[in-house]
Amino acid sequence: MEIDKKAPVDDIINEKDVQIGTITDLDEGEVFLRQNGFNQAAIQALLDDQPRNKALVRKVDLILLPLLSGTYMLQYIDKSALAYSAVFDLLSSTHMSSDQYSWLASIFYFAYLVAEYPWNILAQKTKLAKVVSGNVIAWGAMLMITAACSSFTGMAICRFLLGVFEAPITPCFMLMIGMWYTRAQQPFRAGVFYSCNGLGAMVGGILTYGIGQIDTIAVWRAIYLILGGITLVWGVVMLLFLPDDVISSKRFTLDEKALLIGRGRLGQTGIINHQIKWYQIREALIDPQVWILFLFTLLNEVVNGGIASFGKLIIKGLTDDSATAIALGIPFGGFQIFYLLGGTYLASRIKNFRTVVMFVYLMPTILGASLLWKLDHKTYKVGVLFGYYIIGAYVCSLVLAIQMPATNLGGYTKRTTSVALVFIAYCAGNIIGPHAFLAKEAPIYQTGVKLILACSSAQAALAVLLRFMLARRNKQRDAAAAAVGQIESSADQSAGEDLTDFENPNFRYVF
């Protein structure tokens, strides 16, 4: 279909189906449409072309998902380098105690906590992909530098800087998914790249099992050198191929960009706006939805902080051989892939099913924690292993929770602020979690396991609360629209403005 893109911008702005306004206050996707002569009729014609839509989604998938997935796999492996090294000779080589090791796990997230929001602001004001790619290169280099450490102090400094450089990755990825896909498609795409945590657990286990056979240098140093080198090279690939945003990407035609923006308008969330709007920050801070997601994520990451740091040590308690302990941990990644792809697929395919999935996928975590706590680790080794494998179901609930601010809030600054707040909770939980796993309770770690049970049960209640709150908001908006006889075109008018979900009466929440 040919679209007339030569009409003067002033004529487009003054058409009935485009609201007159200050162009700097608009979403930048809307500015692009106006400057290139795409009116509402032209956008609708593109949206109605289903073969074109399917081809475009496939193109975006092929460009975006391999880069996001590869980065996420490496991020998990690199973040887990500490846990892999602890199974081998890290603690003895650096003369660290178990308590110092716990602090190393937490220091990473202290850095994450400090750096995440500044990186988000920089990414909004500048180039999203360049911020991400530069940090991937920097964290790869930092891993290699870590191999030179010989004490807790050196490890702590490198671990802190690693957290600084990894901080923008997940928040920026969630914003990218929100930018390139419709709201219905976003959960599964987020699940695809996040499931590479599970793939990373498998690949990392196999890779470090092989590295563990090295006898020329300390195994933990070899782990950091090899993983860091791989990540550094991958960062260069990201720098060359990851697009910053829909509008500036050179790999899409004008019609494809217009269609991507039109698809983004369907959810009333917009595409991107580089202007920081302080009132939207304030609105994020007073929105109950944001704070429910904050608390949900905090509890989730208390669970994750403990399992990520001490899960492999729990397994090591079942065997005397370090390499066997690494091998026994590999299926954990396979279970995570199953949970993530299955849960996010259901959330994408079934309307308003996200909070249901968040609730249901906490049940295996509760069961797994109960098995770790109550089964004798000497007599029922298979049962303990099974409990460890299924406990990771909570990651599916996490993905849906941390993706929700990017997909369920209007106003670009409000979205970035809310994503940042949720990731503050992400950091805080990971800081808290490892300290509940007390060295004197190894290898069962009763206190840590009981904390996992409490946190996952509270999360289940929060998922129910969030569902009822968002459903109630939608019903109130539907009733208000019916009362004033709201016309469909008003949704088209407000879609291109950088409005928050509170400002936009046409916005409807997904739950």
TrEMBL record:
Please name the Pfam families in this protein's record.
Answer: MFS_1
What protein name does the entry list?
A: Major facilitator superfamily (MFS) profile domain-containing protein
| Predominant subcellular localization, coarse grouping | membrane
InterPro entries for this protein: MFS, MFS_dom, MFS_trans_sf
- Organism of this sequence: Penicillium hordei
Keyword terms of this UniProt record: Membrane, Transmembrane, Transmembrane helix, Transport
Q: Which family does it belong to?
A: Belongs to the major facilitator superfamily. Allantoate permease family.
Q: Where in the cell is it found?
A: Membrane
